[in-house]
Design brief:
By secondary structure, the chain is α+β, with helices and mostly antiparallel strands. It contains three helices and 15 strands. Bound molecules: zinc ion.
């Protein structure tokens, strides 16, 4: 048995995919194999390391994570899970850029995971998390209509180095860190700060 068996792909997948709607429990939508990364589907431009074109106010940069598609047709409450045990160290709840950063520690040391374009955050700052309970969900239909359907995925990163501490911001009181998401201008930057998420998961599953 893998010593880091806590790692699970549940981050990506609705393991039970139970639709909880107004207290009604529907049948499971699908059973997903959590022992491999095969069932992870990325958006068309969701791969790690793709060059993102310059846009107003943001220079061209490399894509520092992967953009994971919703695993089912659940546009109500498709859950998102932490990949393993950890502690929430930063939380941002503003609309389409809502984000959680989790600090993890295993026998190889510390690393950090980031989940962005999420909604319905179910965890508190400094709360310890486990991979068997949702930390958030994909945006629902109403939120996508409001913010744009380009957010019909969530962005997932694995950081090799600690995220960047932020000054206090009254408008985002629980956002304590930012990632290197928009500041990777070279392949070296990318390698310095980030693991390739799918390789990382495959290695540690
Ligand atoms: Zn992304």
């Amino acid at each position: 048995m893998n010593t880091v068996s806590n790692i699970s792909l549940s981050v990506l997948l609705s393991v039970f995919a139970l639709l909880r709607s107004e207290g009604n429990l529907f049948i499971p939508l699908q059973a997903i194999d959590r022992s491999s990364t095969n069932s992870i589907v990325l958006t068309d431009i969701g791969e790690f390391g793709l060059l993102r074109n310059e846009r107003p106010g943001i220079p061209a940069h490399y894509h520092t994570g992967i953009d994971i598609k919703r695993p089912s047709g659940n546009y109500i409450n498709e859950p998102i899970f932490s990949i393993m045990e950890g502690v929430i160290i930063s939380k941002r709840t503003d609309g389409p850029y809502a984000q959680l950063i989790i600090e993890h520690q295993d026998e190889r040391g510390k690393f950090w995971t980031l989940y962005e374009h999420i909604a319905g955050i179910e965890v508190e700052l400094y709360q310890p998390v486990t991979p068997d309970r949702p930390i958030a969900r994909f945006m629902n239909t109403m939120e996508l209509d409001k913010y744009g359907w380009q957010f019909d995925h969530f962005h997932f990163e694995v950081l090799k180095v600690a995220p960047i501490p932020l000054q206090k911001d009254r408008t985002k009181p629980e956002r304590h860190f930012s990632s290197y998401t928009l500041v990777c201008y070279t392949r070296e930057d990318l390698r310095k700060y980030f693991h390739h998420p799918l390789e990382f998961l495959s290695e540690r599953l």
